[in-house]
Amino acid sequence: MSSLEGRVYTVTGAASGIGQAVAVRLVELGAAGLALSDVNMGNLEKTKALCDSAGKAKIVLSRVDVSDPAQVEKWVDDTVREFGRLDGAANVAGIAGGDGETTCATIKQEDWDKMLAVNLNGVMFCMRAQLPHLPRPGGSIVNVSSTSGLRGLPHNAAYATSKFGVVGLTESAAGEFGRQGIRINALLPGPIDTPIFRDGEAKGLFNSEITSAATCLGRMGQPHEVAKVLCFMMTDDSSYVTGGMFCVLCLPPP
Ligand SMILES: NC(=O)c1ccc[n+]([C@@H]2O[C@H](COP(=O)([O-])OP(=O)(O)OC[C@H]3O[C@@H](n4cnc5c(N)ncnc54)[C@H](O)[C@@H]3O)[C@@H](O)[C@H]2O)c1
User: Fold this and answer.
1) 8-239: CATH, from 3.40.50.10840, 3.40.50.720, 3.10.20.310, 3.30.420.40
2) For the chain, which terminal residue's Cβ has fewer other Cβ atoms within 10 angstroms, N or C?
3) With 70 as the cut, is the pLDDT of residue 235 above it?
4) Which residues line ligand 1 (CB under 6 A)?
Protein backbone atom coordinates (compact mmCIF):
# COMPACT_ATOMS: atom_id res chain seq x y z
CA MET A 1 0.00 0.00 0.00
CA SER A 2 1.28 3.49 -0.77
CA SER A 3 2.80 5.42 2.11
CA LEU A 4 1.27 8.29 4.10
CA GLU A 5 4.71 9.82 4.59
CA GLY A 6 4.63 13.46 5.67
CA ARG A 7 0.86 13.53 6.12
CA VAL A 8 -1.23 14.63 9.08
CA TYR A 9 -4.57 13.17 10.21
CA THR A 10 -7.20 13.69 12.88
CA VAL A 11 -8.91 10.71 14.52
CA THR A 12 -11.94 10.96 16.84
CA GLY A 13 -12.85 8.17 19.24
CA ALA A 14 -9.14 7.31 19.30
CA ALA A 15 -9.08 6.07 22.91
CA SER A 16 -10.57 2.67 22.16
CA GLY A 17 -11.52 -0.01 19.68
CA ILE A 18 -11.60 0.99 16.03
CA GLY A 19 -10.33 4.56 16.54
CA GLN A 20 -7.33 3.29 18.49
CA ALA A 21 -6.54 0.70 15.81
CA VAL A 22 -6.84 3.39 13.11
CA ALA A 23 -4.34 5.61 14.92
CA VAL A 24 -1.81 2.78 15.13
CA ARG A 25 -2.34 1.83 11.48
CA LEU A 26 -1.84 5.43 10.31
CA VAL A 27 1.51 5.46 12.12
CA GLU A 28 2.44 2.10 10.58
CA LEU A 29 1.72 3.56 7.14
CA GLY A 30 4.14 6.42 7.78
CA ALA A 31 1.94 9.36 8.80
CA ALA A 32 4.01 12.25 10.16
CA GLY A 33 1.47 13.57 12.64
CA LEU A 34 -1.76 12.60 14.33
CA ALA A 35 -4.22 14.69 16.34
CA LEU A 36 -6.08 12.14 18.42
CA SER A 37 -9.20 13.02 20.39
CA ASP A 38 -11.72 11.37 22.67
CA VAL A 39 -13.67 12.09 25.86
CA ASN A 40 -11.59 9.43 27.66
CA MET A 41 -8.13 10.94 28.21
CA GLY A 42 -6.82 7.99 30.27
CA ASN A 43 -7.31 5.54 27.44
CA LEU A 44 -6.09 8.09 24.90
CA GLU A 45 -2.69 7.99 26.63
CA LYS A 46 -2.68 4.22 26.03
CA THR A 47 -3.28 4.85 22.33
CA LYS A 48 -0.32 7.25 22.27
CA ALA A 49 1.90 4.57 23.82
CA LEU A 50 0.80 2.08 21.12
CA CYS A 51 1.46 4.66 18.40
CA ASP A 52 4.90 5.45 19.82
CA SER A 53 5.76 1.74 19.59
CA ALA A 54 4.47 1.56 16.01
CA GLY A 55 6.54 4.37 14.46
CA LYS A 56 7.81 7.93 14.56
CA ALA A 57 4.73 10.13 14.17
CA LYS A 58 4.23 13.22 16.32
CA ILE A 59 1.09 12.60 18.40
CA VAL A 60 -1.06 15.31 19.99
CA LEU A 61 -3.88 14.31 22.34
CA SER A 62 -7.01 16.39 23.06
CA ARG A 63 -10.19 15.95 25.06
CA VAL A 64 -12.95 16.66 22.55
CA ASP A 65 -16.66 15.85 22.84
CA VAL A 66 -17.70 15.55 19.18
CA SER A 67 -21.27 16.59 20.01
CA ASP A 68 -20.00 20.08 20.91
CA PRO A 69 -19.30 22.05 17.69
CA ALA A 70 -17.16 24.66 19.48
CA GLN A 71 -14.83 21.97 20.89
CA VAL A 72 -14.55 20.27 17.50
CA GLU A 73 -13.80 23.52 15.66
CA LYS A 74 -11.13 24.57 18.16
CA TRP A 75 -9.49 21.12 18.02
CA VAL A 76 -9.27 21.10 14.23
CA ASP A 77 -8.00 24.72 14.10
CA ASP A 78 -5.40 23.93 16.79
CA THR A 79 -4.32 20.87 14.79
CA VAL A 80 -3.72 22.90 11.65
CA ARG A 81 -1.83 25.54 13.66
CA GLU A 82 0.32 22.85 15.34
CA PHE A 83 1.16 20.77 12.25
CA GLY A 84 0.78 23.36 9.48
CA ARG A 85 -1.45 21.01 7.44
CA LEU A 86 -4.30 18.50 7.59
CA ASP A 87 -4.46 15.76 4.96
CA GLY A 88 -7.37 13.68 6.16
CA ALA A 89 -9.69 12.67 8.95
CA ALA A 90 -11.12 9.50 10.45
CA ASN A 91 -14.39 10.41 12.16
CA VAL A 92 -14.86 7.33 14.33
CA ALA A 93 -16.30 8.38 17.72
CA GLY A 94 -19.67 6.86 18.52
CA ILE A 95 -21.98 5.45 21.15
CA ALA A 96 -24.63 2.70 21.16
CA GLY A 97 -27.67 2.01 23.29
CA GLY A 98 -29.17 3.99 26.17
CA ASP A 99 -30.43 2.06 29.18
CA GLY A 100 -31.86 -0.77 27.09
CA GLU A 101 -35.40 0.72 26.94
CA THR A 102 -35.22 1.22 23.22
CA THR A 103 -38.40 0.40 21.38
CA CYS A 104 -39.75 3.31 19.35
CA ALA A 105 -42.69 3.45 21.77
CA THR A 106 -40.60 3.72 24.90
CA ILE A 107 -37.23 5.26 24.05
CA LYS A 108 -36.33 8.15 26.34
CA GLN A 109 -35.99 11.55 24.72
CA GLU A 110 -32.54 12.07 26.24
CA ASP A 111 -31.28 8.75 24.84
CA TRP A 112 -32.57 9.60 21.35
CA ASP A 113 -31.09 13.11 21.47
CA LYS A 114 -27.71 11.94 22.76
CA MET A 115 -27.37 9.22 20.12
CA LEU A 116 -28.01 11.63 17.27
CA ALA A 117 -25.87 14.34 18.88
CA VAL A 118 -22.78 12.10 19.09
CA ASN A 119 -23.15 9.72 16.15
CA LEU A 120 -24.66 12.03 13.53
CA ASN A 121 -24.15 15.66 14.56
CA GLY A 122 -20.63 14.76 15.70
CA VAL A 123 -19.67 13.61 12.19
CA MET A 124 -21.22 16.73 10.67
CA PHE A 125 -19.37 19.03 13.09
CA CYS A 126 -16.10 17.25 12.29
CA MET A 127 -16.52 17.47 8.51
CA ARG A 128 -17.57 21.13 8.69
CA ALA A 129 -14.42 21.96 10.64
CA GLN A 130 -12.09 19.73 8.57
CA LEU A 131 -13.16 20.42 4.99
CA PRO A 132 -11.84 24.00 4.70
CA HIS A 133 -8.32 22.82 5.59
CA LEU A 134 -7.95 19.71 3.41
CA PRO A 135 -5.65 19.77 0.35
CA ARG A 136 -7.38 20.11 -3.03
CA PRO A 137 -6.71 17.63 -4.59
CA GLY A 138 -5.68 15.00 -2.07
CA GLY A 139 -7.84 15.35 1.05
CA SER A 140 -9.62 12.25 2.34
CA ILE A 141 -12.30 11.83 5.02
CA VAL A 142 -13.70 8.53 6.30
CA ASN A 143 -16.85 8.60 8.42
CA VAL A 144 -17.68 5.51 10.45
CA SER A 145 -21.27 4.35 10.02
CA SER A 146 -22.35 0.72 10.60
CA THR A 147 -24.10 -2.12 8.83
CA SER A 148 -27.00 -0.73 10.91
CA GLY A 149 -26.76 2.21 8.51
CA LEU A 150 -28.01 -0.10 5.75
CA ARG A 151 -30.65 -2.07 7.60
CA GLY A 152 -32.72 -1.11 10.64
CA LEU A 153 -32.10 -3.00 13.84
CA PRO A 154 -34.99 -3.67 16.26
CA HIS A 155 -34.44 -2.11 19.71
CA ASN A 156 -31.70 0.07 18.21
CA ALA A 157 -33.74 2.64 16.27
CA ALA A 158 -31.76 5.66 17.43
CA TYR A 159 -28.44 3.95 16.64
CA ALA A 160 -29.60 2.77 13.21
CA THR A 161 -31.08 6.17 12.42
CA SER A 162 -27.84 7.92 13.32
CA LYS A 163 -25.85 5.52 11.14
CA PHE A 164 -28.23 5.86 8.14
CA GLY A 165 -27.67 9.60 8.62
CA VAL A 166 -23.91 9.22 8.40
CA VAL A 167 -24.32 7.48 5.02
CA GLY A 168 -26.50 10.30 3.69
CA LEU A 169 -24.13 12.93 5.00
CA THR A 170 -21.13 11.18 3.46
CA GLU A 171 -22.71 10.70 0.02
CA SER A 172 -23.89 14.32 -0.03
CA ALA A 173 -20.51 15.73 0.94
CA ALA A 174 -18.71 13.46 -1.56
CA GLY A 175 -20.81 15.00 -4.34
CA GLU A 176 -20.09 18.51 -3.09
CA PHE A 177 -16.30 18.17 -2.84
CA GLY A 178 -15.34 15.52 -5.43
CA ARG A 179 -14.61 18.09 -8.16
CA GLN A 180 -12.17 19.76 -5.78
CA GLY A 181 -10.29 16.48 -5.38
CA ILE A 182 -11.44 15.67 -1.85
CA ARG A 183 -12.64 12.10 -1.31
CA ILE A 184 -15.21 11.28 1.39
CA ASN A 185 -16.21 7.70 2.16
CA ALA A 186 -18.26 5.82 4.75
CA LEU A 187 -17.09 2.70 6.53
CA LEU A 188 -19.79 0.30 7.74
CA PRO A 189 -18.46 -2.23 10.23
CA GLY A 190 -20.42 -5.32 11.18
CA PRO A 191 -19.99 -6.74 14.69
CA ILE A 192 -16.51 -5.84 15.90
CA ASP A 193 -15.11 -6.99 19.23
CA THR A 194 -14.78 -3.65 21.04
CA PRO A 195 -16.22 -2.11 24.26
CA ILE A 196 -19.17 -0.54 22.40
CA PHE A 197 -20.35 -4.01 21.32
CA ARG A 198 -19.62 -5.71 24.64
CA ASP A 199 -21.35 -2.91 26.62
CA GLY A 200 -24.40 -3.19 24.34
CA GLU A 201 -24.37 -6.95 24.82
CA ALA A 202 -24.34 -6.47 28.61
CA LYS A 203 -27.48 -4.30 28.26
CA GLY A 204 -29.16 -6.98 26.13
CA LEU A 205 -29.03 -4.87 22.94
CA PHE A 206 -26.70 -7.18 21.00
CA ASN A 207 -25.76 -10.85 21.21
CA SER A 208 -22.31 -11.76 19.95
CA GLU A 209 -23.12 -15.40 19.20
CA ILE A 210 -26.32 -14.69 17.27
CA THR A 211 -24.78 -11.71 15.46
CA SER A 212 -21.62 -13.61 14.55
CA ALA A 213 -23.65 -16.51 13.16
CA ALA A 214 -25.58 -14.07 10.97
CA THR A 215 -22.45 -12.68 9.26
CA CYS A 216 -21.02 -14.07 6.02
CA LEU A 217 -17.77 -14.96 7.78
CA GLY A 218 -19.45 -16.41 10.86
CA ARG A 219 -17.41 -14.46 13.40
CA MET A 220 -16.91 -11.03 14.90
CA GLY A 221 -14.24 -8.79 13.43
CA GLN A 222 -11.25 -7.29 15.21
CA PRO A 223 -10.56 -3.53 15.30
CA HIS A 224 -7.33 -3.88 13.29
CA GLU A 225 -9.30 -5.53 10.45
CA VAL A 226 -11.49 -2.43 10.24
CA ALA A 227 -8.53 -0.07 10.55
CA LYS A 228 -6.78 -1.61 7.54
CA VAL A 229 -9.77 -0.94 5.29
CA LEU A 230 -10.29 2.56 6.67
CA CYS A 231 -6.65 3.53 6.20
CA PHE A 232 -6.63 2.18 2.63
CA MET A 233 -9.07 5.02 1.93
CA MET A 234 -6.52 7.52 3.24
CA THR A 235 -3.86 6.33 0.78
CA ASP A 236 -3.51 7.33 -2.87
CA ASP A 237 -4.26 3.70 -3.80
CA SER A 238 -7.96 4.62 -3.38
CA SER A 239 -7.64 7.74 -5.57
CA TYR A 240 -10.80 6.96 -7.61
CA VAL A 241 -12.94 6.01 -4.62
CA THR A 242 -15.40 8.49 -3.15
CA GLY A 243 -18.98 8.47 -1.89
CA GLY A 244 -18.47 4.78 -1.20
CA MET A 245 -19.96 2.58 1.50
CA PHE A 246 -17.51 -0.06 2.63
CA CYS A 247 -18.91 -2.92 4.68
CA VAL A 248 -16.34 -4.64 6.85
CA LEU A 249 -17.86 -8.05 7.57
CA CYS A 250 -21.08 -7.79 5.61
CA LEU A 251 -24.34 -9.39 6.63
CA PRO A 252 -25.72 -11.86 4.10
CA PRO A 253 -28.39 -10.51 1.74
CA PRO A 254 -31.96 -10.63 3.16
N1 LIG B 1 -17.94 -2.41 17.47
C2 LIG B 1 -18.90 -2.62 16.61
O3 LIG B 1 -19.47 -3.71 16.54
C4 LIG B 1 -19.29 -1.53 15.65
C5 LIG B 1 -20.12 -1.87 14.57
C6 LIG B 1 -20.52 -0.89 13.69
C7 LIG B 1 -20.10 0.42 13.87
N8 LIG B 1 -19.29 0.72 14.93
C9 LIG B 1 -18.91 2.13 15.07
O10 LIG B 1 -17.51 2.24 15.17
C11 LIG B 1 -17.19 3.43 15.88
C12 LIG B 1 -16.15 3.10 16.93
O13 LIG B 1 -16.71 2.19 17.86
P14 LIG B 1 -15.85 1.08 18.60
O15 LIG B 1 -16.44 -0.20 18.24
O16 LIG B 1 -14.41 1.31 18.40
O17 LIG B 1 -16.29 1.38 20.11
P18 LIG B 1 -15.47 1.87 21.37
O19 LIG B 1 -16.47 2.04 22.46
O20 LIG B 1 -14.32 0.97 21.60
O21 LIG B 1 -14.90 3.30 20.93
C22 LIG B 1 -15.72 4.43 20.82
C23 LIG B 1 -14.93 5.63 21.33
O24 LIG B 1 -15.71 6.81 21.12
C25 LIG B 1 -15.54 7.63 22.27
N26 LIG B 1 -16.66 8.55 22.41
C27 LIG B 1 -17.91 8.28 22.85
N28 LIG B 1 -18.64 9.40 22.90
C29 LIG B 1 -17.84 10.41 22.47
C30 LIG B 1 -18.02 11.80 22.29
N31 LIG B 1 -19.18 12.40 22.60
N32 LIG B 1 -16.98 12.53 21.83
C33 LIG B 1 -15.80 11.94 21.56
N34 LIG B 1 -15.55 10.63 21.73
C35 LIG B 1 -16.57 9.87 22.17
C36 LIG B 1 -15.44 6.65 23.43
O37 LIG B 1 -14.86 7.25 24.57
C38 LIG B 1 -14.61 5.54 22.83
O39 LIG B 1 -13.24 5.74 23.06
C40 LIG B 1 -18.51 3.96 16.44
O41 LIG B 1 -18.96 5.03 15.64
C42 LIG B 1 -19.43 2.77 16.33
O43 LIG B 1 -20.79 3.15 16.22
C44 LIG B 1 -18.88 -0.21 15.81
Assistant:
1) 3.40.50.720
2) C
3) yes
4) 12-13, 15-19, 38-40, 64-67, 92-96, 118, 144, 146, 189, 191-192, 194-197
